[in-house]
Amino acid sequence: MVPPSEAIISAVSAKLRQIVSDIEFAILKDNAGQISNTWEMLTRSGFLREPDLIDFILARVAEDRLSPMADAIPTQIANRLLDHPNAVIVEAGQTLLAADSLHHHSVRHSFLMLTPELLHKICWRVVAALEIVHDSRQLDVIESAKTIIAQFSEANRAQSAARKIVHFSNDIERLELLKPELAGLHLHVAALSKILNLDHDHVVRLIDSGSSTPYAIMLAGAGVAKADAAKAIYTFRGEVITLHEAGIFDASYDSLQQQSVQTEISKWATARTNYLAFGQL
Question: Buried (b) or exposed (e) across 142-165, using 16+ Cβ within 10 A?
Fold first, then answer.
């Protein structure tokens, strides 16, 4: 991964601040203020620099950049899922469309994009910070936090719905999901994630990395033909791909060996595991 730019740092900070503020709003209920009471304290504590949280938010920032590129034309597959013969896929398709809409238009609900583990972690950190601010136990705040956590459903997240759709799709349908211009970002990433055994957020960040090479390697690992891979790369990276990268892709894609591809992907997975566990790459 390349060092983050000022724009990325600003976007990460804004998303984290919004999540903390929205959790506070949900917990305190009668607090209509726009400024977080606990942001500065959480920042000083180092919590907002923890690897799992930063990795998660970086993936959301990447999604914000990539989604419009894949969804310039309404995704054909997502809408077609609503008429699928498999009821599980229909339900997951409805959840995916609803979750995408909530993500783009949410007001005071940004914490719904969190994973259960991160929601639990941030809620209790916010509760602890509020108790420090007020210098007393806040039993009503604790109960509100328990309610938020109890009402949260992992199945309502777009990423979870996309994984379910990929899992229950047949081989022919899964091949379609490897075409982002048809499937949209979430389904495309979920398909790559399952085939390559990489975490969903890891795939998102690799697609949005400083070079198109990792994405090309993932597409090769998933068995995507060169013409379809070129179209996929152009979908997400058409505005930033260099002539040098395009030349390397054109000359090398068909000669990539699956063993080498899988070895490289395994190295990425190991590096990410080390980062999440120890904060080191």
Answer: bebbeebeeebeeeebbbbbbbbb
